[in-house]
Every structure is written in C-alpha cells, then in structure tokens.
TrEMBL record:
<protein>
    <submittedName>
        <fullName>EamA/RhaT family transporter</fullName>
    </submittedName>
</protein>
<feature type="transmembrane region" description="Helical">
    <location>
        <begin position="235"/>
        <end position="256"/>
    </location>
</feature>
<feature type="transmembrane region" description="Helical">
    <location>
        <begin position="202"/>
        <end position="223"/>
    </location>
</feature>
<feature type="transmembrane region" description="Helical">
    <location>
        <begin position="115"/>
        <end position="132"/>
    </location>
</feature>
<keyword id="KW-1133">Transmembrane helix</keyword>
<keyword id="KW-0472">Membrane</keyword>
<feature type="transmembrane region" description="Helical">
    <location>
        <begin position="263"/>
        <end position="280"/>
    </location>
</feature>
<feature type="transmembrane region" description="Helical">
    <location>
        <begin position="92"/>
        <end position="109"/>
    </location>
</feature>
<keyword id="KW-0812">Transmembrane</keyword>
<feature type="transmembrane region" description="Helical">
    <location>
        <begin position="144"/>
        <end position="164"/>
    </location>
</feature>
<feature type="transmembrane region" description="Helical">
    <location>
        <begin position="6"/>
        <end position="22"/>
    </location>
</feature>
<feature type="transmembrane region" description="Helical">
    <location>
        <begin position="59"/>
        <end position="80"/>
    </location>
</feature>
<feature type="transmembrane region" description="Helical">
    <location>
        <begin position="29"/>
        <end position="47"/>
    </location>
</feature>
<feature type="transmembrane region" description="Helical">
    <location>
        <begin position="170"/>
        <end position="195"/>
    </location>
</feature>
<dbReference type="InterPro" id="IPR037185">
    <property type="entry name" value="EmrE-like"/>
</dbReference>
Length: 281
C-alpha cells in the first residue's frame, strides 16, 4: 500500500510544484524539458528496459512520435490549467481523461458499449461540466476562457492514454516505449525552445529536476503498486484515481484557498462516482 500512497502523493505534488512555479518565477517550458531528461535517466536506471525492441520492424514510430509531441504539449497545458483553473479542477480533469479511451473504443475500434460504460461516461461528462463552472464572483485569472485549460488537459491525457494502449497492442514493451517517448518529448521541446532563442537559466532547470523526480516517481510507484497487488488491479486503479482527486481537492482548497462552488463540489463527487462505476471487474 505504501507504493500506492507514494504514487498518489507524487501525482498531486507535481500539480503543487506547477502551481508554485508562478510564485517562484519559474518558466514551465524550461522546467519541463529538464523534467524529461531526469525522467529518462531514471527510467533507464530503474526500469532497465530492453531497447533492442525499438529496432523491431513492428515498432509503432508514428505513435511514439505523436507521444513525443503530445507529452510536453499536455504538460504545458497542465501547468497553465493549474495556474488559471487551480489544482482541484486540473487533477480531476486529468483523472476523468480515462473515459476518453472508452469513447474511442466505441467510435473508433468498434467495441460494443455496455450499460456500465455508458453510465460511467455520462457521469464523467456531468462531472466535467460541474467542475469547469466557476463561481460568478471569482473570475478566472486567465480570463473568461480559462476553462479551456482543464478541458485541454482532459482531452490531451485521454489521447495520450489511447496512444500508449496502441503502442502496447503493437507489441512494444512499456519500459522501452516510455524511454523512447521521454527521449522524443525532451528533444522536441528542447528544439522548440532553441528556435525561440530561450535564455536558459539555472533556477528554471533546477525546478525541472524536482519536477522530473516527482513525475517519474508517480509512474514508478504506480507500476510497483500493480506488482504488489497483481491479483487486484481494480484496487490500484480505483485507489489511485480517487486518491489523486481527493488529495488534490484537499490541497487545493485548504493550502491554496481555491474557491469552489457547490456545483464544483458536486462535480468532485460525480468524478469519484464515475471512477467507482468504471472500476475494472
């Protein structure tokens, strides 16, 4: 259970760190590119993947390149969402993204829907609607369209989940695919920042080291939690998602004084109910 708790803590700590970047004057893009360098080194050292698999003809390089583009893009969207919409809404939107692969399975891959999955998706959409509504007397820092950032987080992480599933279906081992995705994400974001003639500064990169440790810690401990409970993946799945939403709500509301309306609180409750409905059986 300690692995699961550690994974939940790392996930919420990533959002907290992104929230603090503005206060510390950290440029998220520089921190995120360093994050991928740290995560890549940790993945190579701790997961020890067999990289020879990437040379196989069946390696889905199109999927890996798409991940290389989307991973840093969605990370930047998450940073903007935490800044403008808050930790509570951003973490909930990220966890609700697990329903997008379900939609894809119906509309793209021809899977027959069940009453449980349709109900879970309906609850997820209701939760998202409630979460994105801000109290009228507390305008978003990013203006009237700040709701678009958690929506981008929801869509982005959902598409990333689909791509990782497609990578798995192609036979690419998770560790090797993760290393390739991290490497591509870091290289592409680094090239983008070079084109922008970014002035690299040590404090931004140092913040990225912490971000990389937490980001990889979330993944590593989640893998270890599944290994600890190999016969009960539903426990890990549900506890992880509900734990992140609940802890994120507590931290956002109590530590950062994020304002939540009654409708937002309903959205949080619906988020947890939707996750429970979709627990694998």
């Amino acid at each position: 259970m300690l692995y699961l708790i550690a994974s939940i803590a790392c996930s919420v700590a990533v959002s907290v760190l992104l929230k603090l970047f503005r206060r510390w004057g950290v440029e998220p893009a520089q921190a995120i590119v360093m994050n991928y360098a740290v995560a890549l080194a940790l993945a190579l050292g701790l997961l020890r993947p067999s990289l020879e698999q990437l040379a196989a003809p069946a390696t889905p390089w199109g999927v890996l390149i798409a991940l290389g583009v989307l991973l840093p893009s969605v990370f930047l969207a998450m940073a903007a969402s935490v800044r403008h919409a808050g930790i509570v809404r951003s973490d909930a939107a990220q966890r609700l993204s697990l329903f997008i692969p379900l939609l894809a399975s119906f509309f793209l891959f021809g899977q027959d829907p069940t009453a449980r999955t349709v109900g879970g998706i309906a609850l997820a959409f209701a939760a998202l609607f409630c979460l994105l509504r801000r109290p009228a007397d507390t305008p978003a820092e990013g203006g009237p369209y700040a709701w678009a950032w958690p929506l981008a987080v929801w869509v982005g992480y959902g598409v990333i989940d689909i791509l990782f599933k497609q990578m798995s279906k192609a036979g690419t081992a998770f560790g090797a695919g993760l290393v390739a995705s991290f490497a591509l994400a870091g290289v592409l974001l680094f090239a983008f920042l070079l084109l922008r003639r970014t002035r690299w500064q040590l404090p931004h990169l140092a913040a990225g080291v912490g971000l990389g440790l937490l980001n990889f810690g979330n993944i590593f401990f989640y893998i270890r939690a599944h290994q600890q409970f190999p016969q009960d993946p539903a426990l890990v799945f549900s506890a992880m998602n509900i734990g992140v939403v609940s802890l994120g709500a507590l931290v956002g509301a109590l530590v950062f004084r994020e304002t939540l309306s009654r409708l937002n609180l309903v959205g949080l409750a619906l988020t947890i109910v939707a996750i429970v409905v979709m627990i694998p059986r």
